[in-house]
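Suppose you are handed a protein chain with no further information: no name, no annotation, nothing but its sequence. What can you learn? This example shows the usual starting point.
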Amino acid sequence: MKIKTKKPAVADVDMTPMIDIVFQLIAFFMVITNFEQIQADERVKLPSDSLAKPPVVKAADELVLNIGFDRNAEGEITDPQAYIFYNGEQIPVLKFGPKFEQ
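A reasonable first move is to predict its three-dimensional structure. Written in structure tokens, the prediction is:
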């Protein structure tokens, strides 16, 4: 008895609905992009009040001390002695007392 083999059926896919959805997505993103540009031009204006402003610090009254170690380019500590960096100077911690009293 001879067995007949059927040829596989070719599935046809209708691309029309997919193309319609792609065009709708393109139109949607074009409209959204235009709205974002319009909203980006608006600036938020916060209310101004003298109490909300931070206090003004005079530069003469400001004292900034940084405490750290002398390090090389890789960030490794080259000297175990701590230093105080004051006005661009590198001062050892033990010698900073007389310098600070001036």
